[in-house]
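for the writeup, i need someone to sanity check this before i put it in the appendix. the sequnce is what the collaborator sent (i think, or maybe the updated version? ugh). structure was predicted straight from it, no edits. if anything looks off just tell me and ill rerun, i have time this weekend
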Amino acid sequence: MELKVNKMDMEVVMSVGAIKRIGHRWCDLTSFIVNEIQEDNDMGFCSLENYRKGAECFEDGSVLYGLDEDEIWNKLFEITGYAD
């Protein structure tokens, strides 16, 4: 079984297995974040493209920091382009 999505004249096909893997990765990430929030840790997020720049991403302001629970979730959603 395949899921087909047509977006901007580009067809993307994802298998059910790929969709499940993405779902598991998202669950792992959110579980990690919840754990860090419970430990009262701050978090920083940046895109993979900026992360690949190395230390430069910390110097040019590409890393967005969250210092409390709401800010952490907002920064994650901002980096991922997710709007809730």
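The first helix runs from residue 16 to 38. The chain has a mean pLDDT of 83.
thx in advance!!
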